[in-house]
Amino acid sequence: MTVKTFGSSADLAREAAGIIASVICAKPDCVLGLATGSSPIGTYDELARMHREEGLSFARCTSVNLDEYKGLSGTHPQSYRFFMEEHLFSRVDIDRARTFVPCGTADDPAAECAAYDARLEALGGTDVQLLGIGPDGHIGFNEPGDAFVKETHVVDLDPTTIEANARFFASAAEVPRQALTMGMGGIMGARKIVLVASGAAKKAVLDAAVSGPITPRLPASILQLHRDVVVLWSEN
After folding, report:
1. Which residue among the candidates 46, 127, 143, 158 is catalytic per the annotation?
2. Which CATH class is domain 17-127+137-191?
3. Tens digit of each residue's pLDDT (9 = 90 or more) over 13-69
4. For residues 48 and 93, what is the distance between their CA atoms, to the nearest angstrom?
5. pLDDT tens, 60-112?
6. Which residue among the candidates 15, 46, 67, 68 is catalytic per the annotation?
7. Where are the domains of the chain?
8. Whether 107 is catalytic
9. Is the pLDDT of residue 236 over 90?
10. Is there a catalytic annotation at residue 108?
11. What is the pLDDT of residue 220?
């Protein structure tokens, strides 16, 4: 595991985008594992700039997102499909038919989760997985618990996650209480992982994840077992 510290989120974003761009350049038909939330926005801004100004092409890439709120359609402004469209997909030349996000309105969520794992397996896993980290140490929506869950699954969101995400909604009451999330098997199956985090509030949980005990009570700690992880943290 490599840990790098930056003085600004802009510097962090350039580093993260550069790593992802290098994967795309080396393998134009790569599979990108993508994350949502505030942490990766700067990375997506930089990737969009690289596409616009430097000719970085996503035309042959496939993307697989980590998660989606249960009950939100892809057109809902707070859905993660909508987020990806706004922050990356509409700004680069990626083929929408090869962009995958769990369906939050699936009639049978369990079947949707199983199908998502089957799709990921058919793709051969992700070549690079972008991650953020939650205040409770979650990655994707894998919340603290008694065991690491391997498969894509429906999860009850932790109160700290609901509180942290309330800023994106009119009120905390509007934040969905469940989500569909890729499990640890899908995340750990990535050939390379890039975790990004900014600000003092994330420092303690990030330090614990990187150097503390490996425990499902701090889900990101499992990354210590991965062969190729880059952790990028900025002070602001």
Report:
1. 143
2. alpha beta
3. 999 999 999 999 999 999 999 999 999 999 999 999 999 999 999 999 999 999 999
4. 10
5. 999 999 999 999 999 999 999 999 999 999 999 999 999 999 999 999 999 99
6. 67
7. 17-127+137-191
8. no
9. no
10. no
11. 98
Catalytic residue among 51, 138, 153, 158: 138
Would residue 228 show up in a list of annotated catalytic residues for this protein? no
The single-letter code of the amino acid at 192 is: K
Quote the tokens at residue 124: 């051969």
Long-range contacts of 98-101 (CB under 8 A, 24+ apart): 98/61, 98/62, 98/63, 99/62, 99/63, 99/65, 100/62, 100/63, 100/64, 100/65, 101/65, 101/68, 101/74
Which position among 136, 151, 156, 235 bears the catalytic label?
Answer: 136
Q: Nearest-5° angle of CA 65, CA 69, CA 72?
A: 110
pLDDT at 169 (0 to 100): 92
Task: Give residue for tokens 């309105």.
Answer: 105
Q: Residue 76 catalytic? A: no
Tokens linked to 83: 């987020």
